[in-house]
Amino acid sequence: MEFAINTTMKTITRPAFAETEEKKSRFLAELVFHDDLAKRIDELRALHPKANHHVNAYRYLNDEEQLIEHGKDDGEPSGTSGVPCLKVLQGRDLINVAVIVTRYFGGTKLGTGGLVRAYSAAAHAACDAAEIIDYIPQGEADLFAGFSDAGPLEQACSQDGITVLDRQFDSAGTHIKIAGPRDILHDLAERFSKSDT
After folding, report:
1. Exposure of 119 in the CB half-sphere (CA atoms within 13 A)
2. Which of 15, 44, 128, 185 is exposed most, by the fewest CB atoms within 10 A?
3. Using CA atoms, how far apart are residues 5 and 74, in angstroms rounded to an integer?
4. Buried/exposed 36-51: b ≥16 CB within 10 Å, e otherwise
């Protein structure tokens, strides 16, 4: 199957938030789109200047469809926070997302095992609060139709999930550039291939 990644990967519709507590330490967890990660960490550092750590983990597909994933401990003992958060994202098959866990120290050290459990629980809580949907790979396509087929082309481009990026008319017909789910684009491209002339 050409787009098999759809059937296993998931993503979110919007950011989600959850708060957990472990031995008086507060864990503020946010699940965000990967593209917003750096900006959101900067915002959280400004919003929570007294917080001890802003641990994060992310998973995304780059332009070559390679899976990139990483967990950052942000000052917590190595392997006790970023990787546990990453494992939560992996376990839920989430893609193109990041989890950020802001910790306020409560005065009691949690130990290595306690930190792993606390950060995992915070990441799970944020995932539980999210609206999770199937990940559908997106793309762009250039389509063409002669004037006699312009109506069907316009109708095909008006379906849900398709965004028209550009529309041009010339003496040969209609040229439309669209974005949307790649499986739909593939079908449309077979029907309305761009003119070679």
Report:
1. 35
2. 128
3. 31
4. ebeebbeebeeeeeeb
Report the predicted TM-score, pTM, of the whole model to 2 decimal places.
Answer: 0.76
Domain ranges of the chain: 4-134, 138-191
CA 92 – CA 127 distance, rounded (Å):
8
CB 185 within 8 A of CB 139: yes
Show the tokens assigned to 157. 């481009």
Q: What CATH number does the domain located at 4-134 have?
A: 3.30.230.30
Phi-psi region of 96 (alpha: psi -120 to 50; beta: other; left: phi over 0): left
Q: How does pLDDT run across 53-94, given as a tens digit for each residue?
A: 999 999 999 888 889 999 999 999 999 999 999 999 999 999
**Half-sphere exposure at residue 188, Cβ-oriented, CA atoms within 13 angstroms:** 31
What's the rounded mean pLDDT across residues 152-157?
Answer: 86
Q: Residue type at 23?
A: K
How many of the other CB atoms lie within 10 Å of CB of 76?
Answer: 21
Residue ranges of E strands in 77-151:
97-104, 132-134, 138-146
Residues 29 and 7: their CA atoms lie apart, in Å, by 27
Q: Which 8-state DSSP code applies to residue 94?
A: B
Read out DSSP for 169-189? Answer: E-SSEEEEEEEEEHHHHHHHH
